[in-house]
Amino acid sequence: MDAIFQAFIDTYSQFFNWAMWGEVLTDPVSWGYIGTLVILEGLLSADNALVLAVMVKHLPPEKRKKALFYGLLGAYIFRFIAIGIGVFLIKLWWVKVLGAAYLAYLAIKYFIDKRKEKNAEVNEEEESHGINQNGLLIRLFGTFWGTVVAVELMDIAFSVDSVLAAFGVSNQVWVLLVGGMLGVLMMRGVAGVFLKLIDRVPELESTAYILILIISVKMFLGVFGVHVHHIVFFGVLIVAFAATFVVHYRNKKKAEQGKAL
């Protein structure tokens, strides 16, 4: 426990290391990793933002923003703590294996669920009912604060996935901190933009989970001392996005031909 606490202190003492700030912010590779996290967060946060919007829709309009703001604050605090502890834990090989396995599970589960073609029915049901207003949290804390707690718990669940993905991309402290904090902001501020983007290019959602699978493989290889060079990693990302737009164009063309017939 003392080692974890010391690692936590050492991690956040680097906030005052201006030399590290200068090194990271002037390194194109670091910005490449941060950009990767931001894009990944943006694609994944689109659905997350919808879930959160559904959770607060029963509140009066003036209280919805407050509930989401408190959730945002809790998400920042959780990620701040999780990254500090994670920098120590991620050095343990079995933690890397568990993290890689969990990310792979998320990606595989997404494609299995998609194959079942039940997502549309589930989403419609969630949108129509929202949060259970007779649930335990509402009874314990009241309508507003019960909703805030529910939003906080959902934010934490989303953050676990994002923090693990961040550690798979890079173990540099500043990359994790900047990418993680920007990621939370993406879920609130720019989620609408990515929602529109996914509406126009639906294949991007699948690409996000393919990237998670790639990141899980990268993390797993790290256990055996096999480190993927950043040029290879970024090259794979570029190919994945390029393939996404090619597939989208072909699907769109097929749909247009089907309508013509």
Describe the structure.
- With 261 residues, the protein is an all-alpha fold.
- It has one domain (2-260).
- The chain has helices at residues 2-13, 18-25, 28-56, 61-89, 93-116, 119-129, 136-169, 173-200, 203-223, 230-260.
Name the quaternary structure. single chain
Strand content: under 5%
Please bin the fraction of helical residues.
Answer: over 70%
Shape: globular
Mean of residue pLDDT values: 76
Distance separating the two termini:
68 Å
Number of helical segments with 4 or more residues: 10
Task: Give a count of the beta strands, DSSP E runs of length 2 or more.
Answer: 0
> Which H/E pattern describes the elements?
HHHHHHHHHH
Low-confidence stretches: 125-129
Strand count, sense and barrel status of the largest sheet are:
none
Structural class: mainly alpha
What integer value in Å does the Rg equal?
A: 20 Å
The tally of domains stands at 1
